[in-house]
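WARN retry 2 of 3 for item q-0093 after timeout on previous attempt; input resubmitted unchanged.
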Amino acid sequence: MSMDLCRKPLLFRSLMPTFAFLGVFSSASIGLTLAAPTDIISDSSTLRDSLGRLAVDGLLPADASRLLLDRVLTRQEAANLLVTGLGLTPTSSFIKVNANDVEAVKNALLTLRPELLADGIQVDRLVKSLPSHSESFLGLVQPELRVDTGGKNNEGSGAFGIYRGTSIGDVGENLIYAVSVSNQAEDDRRVFFNDIGPHDNTSLTQAYVSYSGPRGLSLLAGRTDENWGAGAEGGALLSDNVSSIDQVRVALPFSLGQRLGRNWNYTQLAGTYVSDNSRIYLQARRVEINFSSKWSAQYEEALKSNTSSMLFRAPLPFLIAKSIHLSDAESKTEFISDLGLQYIPNKVVRTYGQLLINDIKSPFTGHFLGFDVGDPNYSPPQRLAYLFGASAQLNEGTTATIEYSVADPATYLDKNPQLAWTAGAYDNLGLPSGANAKVLYGLITQPVTKKITLYLQGRQRKRLDNSYPSPDSQDVGASAKYQLDRRNSVGVTYHDYFQDAFPIAPGAPGYPQGNGNEPVSEANPGTSTTIHEVDVAYTLVF
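OK item q-0093 returned
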């Protein structure tokens, strides 16, 4: 079970010694931002690598190793860590660090540039004070011993090794390149992290060039992942549950004046990947508004197509772009939109929610108020998903997260199987558990001493309907981590996992006929899976 720099936080993952902290920090003075300040930083983001390097080199707060080493780290929290650790103020004009930390500091500054600028930090001036044309290598190695204590259809006892290596460099002051390779995703998903599998994994998780331009402009080209929203389990529209996608992304803050708001931001990406031997094209955009230091909201929309011509409709709202595809719109495009809202009332509480809309079932059909409304012979199934959650620091050191999500049986599916909201048979672009799911997730951490932290985590997934695509499951774990020093740690975890037998998949012999959208009653063949496992691991970050 991986205890890594950046992967998802099944409890047994949370022994990792690098620094994706759950602790809730102040979000004061939120200004123009390139991403919502409560956005969760993607699992394989090189920002996590950079923060890990700064932490192990003592450039983050002294008690950083006691904070929860979990995926739930927001951009604003990361910016606050950086400000505190480096002692940054609006009057800071230079940063003095050793050569090994130059690129980690520069990458963190430029990645979190909008949040830092909003707090008055002169990022460009600080970046200029650092040496240019340098390069850093960041990495992790983690040997593990797994002992099977009575699972069913489990892989059994054995040894395993996790690795991650990231190279970050620059070409000038505002242009950074990064390459990262890892086998962490393969290890995470061997226990069906998103409750269904198998999964497509790639060892090349990041490979991109990023440019930070004037007035907050950000450009990125290459391979990376996305995680839009504050959900601990993933975003409703786009999450880093899937492998990284080749893409081009642009983001720019803007103002609509005092009445309509000054703190807006626009983000758009266009990408492509291969799913089930078919080339897929993806576009997504987001418009965000930060009302205050406590409230922020987003509207997001995305379009998936199996024709490259859709990439040329980038300036249009995607619903219109899909409509002008005329007669083959339904067979060649899939459009989804999402609304998000975050509220951070104080330094120790963070709340959030998302509502994803694919199809809303109309309550009216036939003749209504003198107009013909809907098709009396056909009403599409309702295809919605939503999540809401909260994270809080209960007392000094103790933290807790709880999250609940629901997706209708056909939310992420489509009449054209190629356009289902996935990047592979079981890799969902949105909520990790996909369609037809109700998921409850919880996590509690308790520091015992400066070096020892305890974790308790659970997840329960229920199928809304006895149909495809995935079965019930539940996952409970308890672990303890002992931090030897900033670079070395050891941990032990007990993991209890159960997954019900898979239902029949569409296209398989015996699968009942349906229209591809509506759930069908079906048998539940196959074999259930249980894992009862003790995992002992040693981790070195360098």
